Amino acid sequence: DAMVIQNPRYQVTQFGKPVTLSCSQTLNHNVMYWYQQKSSQAPKLLFHYYDKDFNNEADTPDNFQSRRPNTSFCFLDIRSPGLGDAAMYLCATSRGFTGEGEQFFGPGTRLTVL
Amino acid sequence: KNQVEQSPQSLIILEGKNCTLQCNYTVSPFSNLRWYKQDTGRGPVSLTIMTFSENTKSNGRYTATLDADTKQSSLHITASQLSDSASYICVVSGGFQKLVFGTGTRLLVSP
Hints:
The structure holds 2 protein chains of 2 kinds. Chain A is mainly β. Chain A has strands at 4-7, 10-13, 19-25, 31-37, 44-50, 53-56, 64-67, 73-78, 87-94, 104-105, 109-113. The N and C termini of chain A lie far apart (36 Å). By secondary structure, chain B is mainly β. In chain B, strands 2, 4, 5, 9, 10 and 11 form a 6-stranded mixed β-sheet that branches. In chain B, strands 1-3-8-7-6 form a 5-stranded antiparallel β-sheet, with no helix packed on it.
């Protein structure tokens, strides 16, 4: 089945130690998104790629970076995780523009920062 | 300011009962409204997506309604099951703009 896959499902890192979260999709969608979701809060968009074009949200900290080497894969790099970065990170995809295409979410990666 | 407000914040119902969740929005322009179900520790899963011209849409025991004039939507769950326990998130799109998420309603279905 076509889907959005995130690895790992659970990630533990130490304060300040770089970490990379991975997302892959078999839907062949041209748009991929990264969201941060803290407990009992709505997902917050960090950035998205429309094909190779990177779109960063204005309030996304510089600590968060992303790479999209090809259509199928997208990575979230947290250069120096702080305690406040502990959250669920959701990857999503859509075909077409941000607001038009239905978004399909992955199962998420739960990040713990010690 | 583009906002999506959901009520109630949380809800407990008995298995087999019906319930209705509310969503009010101020997003403009409006393109579509989506309801997602998010199980604890999982990503959101789409239930329905409605455009301006659609008043109601069903997906099994889930029925969403949309009143674009009053900018209100509801999600009705019929004959609730234990597996319906989850957060239900209302999301509104303004077209090319990014999605505006509500904070969700946490539903607990009790045996």
